[in-house]
Every structure is written in structure tokens, then in C-alpha cells.
């Protein structure tokens, strides 16, 4: 439509869902307006969605406010409806108008258009989104021509090996589209650098997992690209480097706000982080009076949220300052049980200003987070959670403080956690049961973030991830060294800490080097080796929670051994001079460090003294140790080993396991690999960071107080854990019918006998239509005497060992 040359009340830049909704409502109210779009069509972001894409209308419990219709449907249907309704509502649109700059003040803005006359406006609403600024691949080969950042029509590609990089909604939807038609014969792989899909909608994750189960898509978790080659892609996986065939890369690695353009207008951002968003008031106004921001640029990417914001911002501009957001009733219900009868806005102000991980969230982002969280109040002394209780949520203290009971034998010994901090992060990061009982020390208001909400916050808000990192590092240091250390003692170390991701096999410190940093293993595990006669001789294994590098730091010597990652790991690096300063200030910490050093020096001296006589025994020791690491023991917390020199093949271990678990054995003695005298059967390793736990919709997989990973009765049989386990130790099976007792079998032949019943017997006697559930070793949790497989072994061949002990088995078989 024609645009009046006079100044409009509101100019809306960008015709995505937020901009369209704002313009449609301005037209409905009779406000003079213009919708500025740089292309020749509306809603360029959705226009660029892949052909036939199904667009979701989430969250389902949020009311839609808009003069345009929107419901879940295909890309084409939604665009057709909006094109028609924009025309019917007589919205003023200027197409092919690219904004070059915005100058002036509230009431008198000039919007400069490339190659065209400027537009004058009293107020400006920026609804420009972020899709025009994709994050480029910054790896060797990242500029090769077969990399693309957009997928328009999945039907255009045939018989290609295609890798999708990025596990958000766009990446998942692209992968599903490319694999939808089997006749296209595409081999589709999607890379996820983490072990869960924190950025994606649950419905998309479910569809992806179904495609993975059907074999239509290869999902690579804990994997990232390290180099692009012609026809190949080099991957950094949890087990080391891998090269796969790759004809095409679809990179959906997110995008960043057009910061330079927005800042040039006079708008300030919430922080200097690349991912930061503009600072906004609850009415969407920026730090530049008269400039408003809505939609993805405000940190709200969901279409329904965007459209509501478009409606609301025009209402505010039209004088309706009392309008409440559409999510107001939902939040009122959430806050209804809190003390003081405060309004939603008051509680959001308290929570946002007091809690450290929320400080850089805009009011809009905080509202969205609250929709996925719960808020609790506790009286002084009331328990928040108890030691060994399952739970993977994280708590943030909005008001008050808590007391952590650090000594189970004496509840009066407590450590405080103050207002604004967090707790429960151990369960979030590791999946372990609660490590302590926590009570309210005074009247307490705490926000409980579900595991999904917390992971999404950490992944999408850099400041929140940074705070959680700092707190977890501080608490790990205090727990490791103890000896009366305070937060103030370790503050310099925490401030200087650097979290470093390490590839499997990558060296962290190298024998003979002269560097002076100290390291703490945050995730994964390390192998310690010493060069003897030109060969790396295995010295020890370091699980998560260990530290290393202190010898060179304390005595100034060169590195006495090489430390490298057994699997993909994460370490925290601390400057050596700051660690030495801590030791100087705290002699008891120095005593502990010197004691640890003495043990490591003893191992080094033993190796040096016998280096001339090692020969094949040393080779056997190192090779056997490496075999154990290669078979998953590098991330185990408890593993079943069988000494083949003692095993007589009686299968008592399997029978005992089945009899202790309703007739279903959790191990396969014959399966698995063997080296020298050691056999690793197919049985759960109870990994430090369990892969099976990553994508469990009902959170049915828990960690017990002794590290055992078990599946509770909330399992829904989705099979995600089975697909995610790299060791094949989980199976899906129906709960078998109750077997007759042993005497009934002996005297009357009733039932299948001891051990696991045959499939035919279980099928014959099972209730009709019984669903399958996930089955795995739980270390005989709750059964007196410990693991049945070990108790039932007549020769002592079966042993269960922790990671710091299992290599002694290797040593006994070779080096000594």
C-alpha cells in the first residue's frame, strides 16, 4: 500500500511473526504505521524454513494475542494465511526496503532506506530477528563451498552423505526433512556437541529419536567437527578423532544479534557477551527512548511469544500502560503460595535482582524461564531435600539462606549458602543423588529449575553458565582440599580458573615440559604414563575429581610424567603461582598435597628402578591397561571383570543376577572382549557421566549414593537409554511373569528353573500387551551382601571394582 510522506506514529522494522503482529494491531487500532521489509515477501525467517516444514504453536498453555491467526501447520499454510490477512487488514507495508541507519530522538526518528526516501516516525519497533547473522564454522576448511547455512528444500538432495551440525530445532528439523523420503537415499548424520538436546523442543527431540531408532538418521552425541575436507569431515568424538564421508554440510549453529547496527542506534546490551540481548523494560523499550525491541532480538524466539509481544508493544504505544502479558495468569498461579502477597512483577523483580544466574536476563527472558520452573517457600528448619534423595533439578535462592548438613553423623555441623546463590548443581551436572541434606536457615524462597530448564539456561545465557561454572569449581576445590578452607581462600584460584575441553588421547601435560599449572579433572578421566626406553609405560589412572600437576608446581621441577585424556574430558586449569600462594597460607593443605606427591613419587621411583628389567611384562601391563580404557573403563565408576584363569563357565553369575531381578539377567558373561587373562562382560559400567541418563523423558534413570546407576519404575519404555549407551548394556524387555519357587520346580517341574527364563516361557506366560521396559545392572541396589554375580561365583573369578582399583588387577597380572 502507499505510505504517507508524513511522520507515522510507529515504524516496525522486520516482518517476522512479531513485526507482523505489531503492524496488524496498529492497523486495527487505526494508528499511522509502516511495516518495513527488506525482501519482496513477508516473514523472511519462516519463508526460509525448509519446504513443507511443520511449524509448532508452543507453548500450548499460552493464550495467543494477535489480529492474525496462528496455529500449528505447514510453512506454506501459515504464510498464505498471513499474506491474506495482512492485505485484508490494510497493513501498510514497504517491501524491498533495507534500513541503513536510524537517527533522531523519540517523536522524531529518521529511518534511512538504501536507495530510497527516508521514513519519519515517532517511535520505532525493531523486530528484525537474528537469522541474518549465522554463526560460521571456525575450523580448518570452514570456508569450503559444500558448507551451507540454510536448507530451503530437502527434496532437492539425492544419494548424498549429509551432515547437519547443530542440535537445536532448526538442525533437527533439517535432518528429519533430509531423511524423510527413503527414495532420496540420503545418509544423514546430525552432530550434538553435548549429550542432551537442551535447546530443542521436546516434540522435535522425540521425532529425532524415533528416526534414530528406525535407522534413518545417525545421531552423534558428544561430537563436534574439527576439520572439513573435500568429501570428508573430521570429528572430535568422546573416544578420539574419527573421519566420516561427507558430501554436504548443513550448519545450523545458531545466530547472533546484529549488535553493531543496534548499538549504532543508541541501544545498550545487557553485557559484552556475543550472545547478549538488548537491555529492555517490561514494555519492550530499550535504553534509547522511543526504540522498542520485540521477537527473537529480545530473546524470545517462539512464534507465539513473538506475536504476543507485537500485540502488546502496540498497546503500550497506544497508551494502555496497564496491560499485563499473556502469561500473567500462569505466573500468578505459580507465585500464589509465596509469602507476602506480592504481585507477579514484584516477585520477578526480587528473583531477577537477587539471584546471580538471573542478573543478565531481561524481564521477558525471566518470565519465560519461570514458566518452566517452580517456586517454593520454606519455613526455618524445613528440609528442601535430603541426603541420597534422587533429584536432578537445581535451586536458586531468591530470599533467605540454607544450611548444608555436611556430616551425616552430626546434623548440627552445617555450611551456609547465602541469598542469590544456587545449590543442587551436583545432581544437575552428574546425575548423582543428593550429596547432603539441605534445610532452610531462615524464611526461604527458592526457584527450582528442572534439569531441562537449567541446561537450557546454561546453554543459552553465557553469564548464567559462567556463574554455575564458578560456583561448581569453588565447591569442588573446597571439597577436595578441605582443611578448613574458606571461599575467600580459594577466591583467587576460582577467578583465574579456565575450563578446558580435552579430546580423547590429547596430552594435558607432557613429560619433560617446564610448565607450572595445576589441573582438576571435572569430567572424564586421565591416564598417567612415563617414557621408559622410548615406550610409554602406564603408571596410573585418574578419575573425575582428581587433581594433577602439583609436583612441578610445588618443587619447581619439570614434568615427571605425561597425563592424557582416556576419553573426551574436561579439566579446570589453575595458575601454579596462585596454588603455591594457597599452600603458603594454609600449611595443612600443603601437608595433604605433599602426601599425594609422595605416593606419586613412589610409583615413579619404582618404575625407574626396574626400567632395565621391564621388557615384555611392562608391555603386557601397558597394553592390558589400554585395553581396559578402550572398553569403557575410562569413564566407569564400577565395573565387572572376570579373571579367565579362574572362570569355569558355570554361568552362576548370570543365574544369580536373573534370580535377584525378577527373572531377567542384567549381564551376558560370554559377550564382551578379552585381553590376556581379563574379560569385560556385557554389564553396566555405571559411568561417571551416564550416557543413558542424557535423554530420559521421565527422568527415570537415577544415581544411587554409591554411584550405582539404576532405572526406577517410572520408565516409559521409550528406548532412548538403550540407543544412547555406547556399550550395549541396556536392553528392552517385558517384565516377566512370576516364576514358581525353587521347590516347585525341583519337585513338580513347575516353571523354567533357576536363572533367566527362556524367551518362549516368558512370552507364553506374560500378560497380553505388556509393554517393554529398560533393563540394566543396578549393582543389586537394596539387596544385602552386594552384587549377586560376585557372591555366586564359586572360584572368585568375578569381581566388581572401582576405577581407581581395577588397574591393580592388571598390575597383579603382569608387572609385579
TrEMBL record:
Top-rank taxon: Bacteria
Q: Where does the record place the Cyclic nucleotide-binding domain?
A: 357-458, 481-600
Question: Which SUPFAM superfamilies does this entry report, sorted A to Z?
Answer: 4Fe-4S ferredoxins, cAMP-binding domain-like, FAD/NAD(P)-binding domain
Q: Write out the GO MF terms.
A: 4 iron, 4 sulfur cluster binding; metal ion binding
* Statement: the UniProt record of this protein carries the keyword Transcription regulation: no
Under the heading PROSITE patterns, the entry gives: 4FE4S_FER_1 (PS00198), 4FE4S_FER_2 (PS51379), CNMP_BINDING_2 (PS00889), CNMP_BINDING_3 (PS50042)
State one Pfam family annotation.
Fer4_11
Report the InterPro entries cross-referenced here.
4Fe4S_Fe-S-bd, 4Fe4S_Fe_S_CS, cNMP-bd_CS, cNMP-bd_dom, cNMP-bd_dom_sf, FAD/NAD-bd_sf, RmlC-like_jellyroll, RnfB_subfamily
Cite the CDD domains for this sequence.
Answer: CAP_ED (cd00038), DMSOR_beta_like (cd16367)
Identify this protein by name. Answer: Cyclic nucleotide-binding domain-containing protein
Q: Which organism is it from?
A: Alteraurantiacibacter aestuarii
Amino acid at each position: 500500500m502507499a505510505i504517507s510522506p508524513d511522520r507515522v506514529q510507529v515504524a516496525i522494522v522486520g516482518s517476522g511473526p512479531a513485526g507482523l503482529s505489531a503492524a496488524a494491531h496498529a492497523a486495527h487500532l487505526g494508528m499511522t504505521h509502516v511495516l518495513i521489509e527488506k525482501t519482496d515477501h513477508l516473514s523472511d525467517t519462516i519463508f526460509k524454513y525448509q519446504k513443507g516444514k511443520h511449524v509448532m504453536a508452543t507453548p500450548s498453555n499460552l493464550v495467543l494475542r494477535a489480529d492474525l491467526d496462528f496455529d500449528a501447520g505447514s510453512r506454506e499454510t501459515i504464510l498464505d494465511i498471513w499474506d491474506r490477512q495482512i492485505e485484508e487488514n490494510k497493513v501498510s507495508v514497504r517491501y524491498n526496503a533495507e534500513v541503513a541507519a536510524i537517527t533522531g530522538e523519540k517523536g522524531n526518528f529518521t529511518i534511512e532506506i538504501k536507495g530510497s526516501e527516508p521514513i519519519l516516525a515517532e517511535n520505532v519497533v525493531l523486530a528484525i530477528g537474528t537469522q541474518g547473522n549465522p554463526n560460521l564454522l571456525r575450523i580448518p576448511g570452514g570456508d569450503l563451498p559444500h558448507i551451507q547455512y540454510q536448507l530451503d528444500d530437502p527434496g532437492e538432495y539425492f544419494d548424498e552423505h549429509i551432515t547437519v551440525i547443530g542440535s537445536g530445532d532448526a538442525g533437527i528439523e533439517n535432518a528429519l526433512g533430509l531423511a524423510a523420503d527413503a527414495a532420496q537415499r540420503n545418509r544423514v548424520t546430525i552432530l550434538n556437541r553435548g549429550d542432551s538436546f537442551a535447546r530443542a523442543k521436546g516434540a522435535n527431540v522425540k521425532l529425532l529419536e524415533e528416526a534414530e531408532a528406525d535407522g534413518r538418521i545417525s545421531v552423534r552425541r558428544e561430537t563436534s567437527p574439527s576439520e572439513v575436507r573435500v568429501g570428508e569431515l573430521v570429528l572430535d568424538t568422546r573416544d578420539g578423532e574419527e573421519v566420516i564421508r561427507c558430501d554436504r554440510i548443513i550448519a545450523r549453529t545458531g545466530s547472533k544479534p546484529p549488535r553493531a547496527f543496534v548499538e549504532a542506534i543508541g541501544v545498550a546490551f545487557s553485557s559484552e557477551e556475543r550472545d547478549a540481548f538488548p537491555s529492555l523494560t517490561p514494555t519492550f523499550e530499550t535504553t534509547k527512548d522511543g526504540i522498542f525491541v520485540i521477537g527473537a532480538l529480545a530473546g524470545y524466539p517462539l512464534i507465539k511469544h513473538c506475536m504476543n509481544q507485537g500485540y502488546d508493544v502496540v498497546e503500550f504505544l497506544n497508551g494502555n500502560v496497564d496491560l499485563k502479558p499473556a502469561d500473567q495468569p500462569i505466573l500468578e498461579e505459580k507465585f500464589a503460595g509465596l509469602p507476602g502477597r506480592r504481585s507477579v512483577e514484584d516477585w520477578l523483580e526480587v528473583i531477577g535482582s537477587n539471584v546471580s544466574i538471573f542478573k543478565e536476563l531481561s524481564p521477558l527472558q525471566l518470565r519465560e524461564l519461570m514458566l518452566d520452573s517452580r517456586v517454593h517457600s520454606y519455613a526455618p528448619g524445613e528440609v528442601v531435600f535430603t541426603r541420597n534423595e534422587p533429584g536432578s533439578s537445581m535451586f536458586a535462592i531468591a530470599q533467605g539462606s540454607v544450611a548444608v548438613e555436611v556430616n551425616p553423623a552430626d546434623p548440627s555441623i552445617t555450611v551456609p549458602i547465602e541469598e542469590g546463590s544456587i545449590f543442587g548443581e551436583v545432581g544437575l551436572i552428574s546425575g548423582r543423588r543428593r550429596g547432603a541434606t539441605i534445610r532452610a536457615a531462615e524464611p526461604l524462597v527458592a526457584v527450582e529449575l528442572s534439569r531441562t530448564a537449567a541446561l537450557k539456561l546454561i546453554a543459552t545465557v553465557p553469564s548464567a553458565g559462567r556463574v554455575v561454572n564458578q560456583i561448581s569449581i569453588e565447591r569442588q576445590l573446597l571439597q577436595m582440599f578441605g582443611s578448613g578452607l574458606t571461599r575467600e581462600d580459594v577466591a583467587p584460584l576460582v577467578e583465574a580458573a579456565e575450563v578446558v575441553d580435552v579430546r580423547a588421547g590429547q596430552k594435558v601435560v607432557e613429560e619433560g615440559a617446564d610448565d607450572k599449572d595445576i589441573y582438576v579433572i571435572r569430567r572424564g578421566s586421565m591416564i598417567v604414563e612415563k617414557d621408559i626406553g622410548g615406550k610409554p609405560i602406564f603408571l596410573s589412572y585418574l578419575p573425575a575429581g582428581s587433581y594433577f600437576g602439583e609436583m612441578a608446581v610445588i618443587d619447581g621441577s619439570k614434568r615427571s610424567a605425561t597425563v592424557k585424556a582416556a576419553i573426551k574430558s574436561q579439566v579446570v586449569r589453575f595458575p601454579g603461582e596462585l596454588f603455591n600462594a594457597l599452600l603458603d597460607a594454609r600449611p595443612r593443605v600443603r601437608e595433604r598435597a605433599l602426601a599425594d606427591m609422595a605416593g606419586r613419587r613412589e610409583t615413579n621411583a619404582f618404575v625407574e628402578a626396574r626400567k632395565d628389567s621391564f621388557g615384555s611384562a611392562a608391555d603386557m601391563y601397558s597394553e592390558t591397561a589400554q585395553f581396559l580404557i578402550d572398553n569403557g573403563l575410562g569413564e566407569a565408576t564400577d565395573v565387572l571383570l572376570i579373571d579367565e584363569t579362574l572362570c569355569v563357565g558355570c554361568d552362576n553369575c548370570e543365574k544369580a543376577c536373573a534370580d535377584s531381578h525378577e527373572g531377567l539377567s542384567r549381564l551376558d558373561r560370554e559377550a564382551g572382549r578379552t585381553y590376556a587373562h581379563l574379560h569385560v562382560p556385557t554389564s553396566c559400567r555405571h559411568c561417571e557421566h551416564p550416557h543413558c541418563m542424557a535423554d530420559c523423558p521421565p527422568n527415570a534413570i537415577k544415581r544411587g549414593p554409591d554411584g550405582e546407576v539404576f532405572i526406577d519404575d517410572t520408565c516409559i519404555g521409550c528406548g532412548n537409554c538403550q540407543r544412547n549407551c555406547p556399550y550395549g548394556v541396556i536392553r528392552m524387555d517385558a517384565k516377566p511373569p512370576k516364576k514358581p519357587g525353587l521347590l516347585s520346580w525341583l519337585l513338580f517341574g513347575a516353571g523354567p528353573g533357576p536363572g533367566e527364563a527362556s524367551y518362549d516361557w516368558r512370552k507364553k506366560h506374560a500378560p497380553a500387551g505388556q509393554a517393554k521396559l529398560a533393563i540394566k545392572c543396578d549393582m543389586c541396589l537394596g539387596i544385602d551382601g552386594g552384587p549377586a554375580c560376585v557372591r555366586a561365583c564359586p572360584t572368585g573369578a568375578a569381581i566388581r571394582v572401582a576405577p581407581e582399583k581395577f588397574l591393580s588387577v592388571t598390575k597383579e597380572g603382569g608387572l609385579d
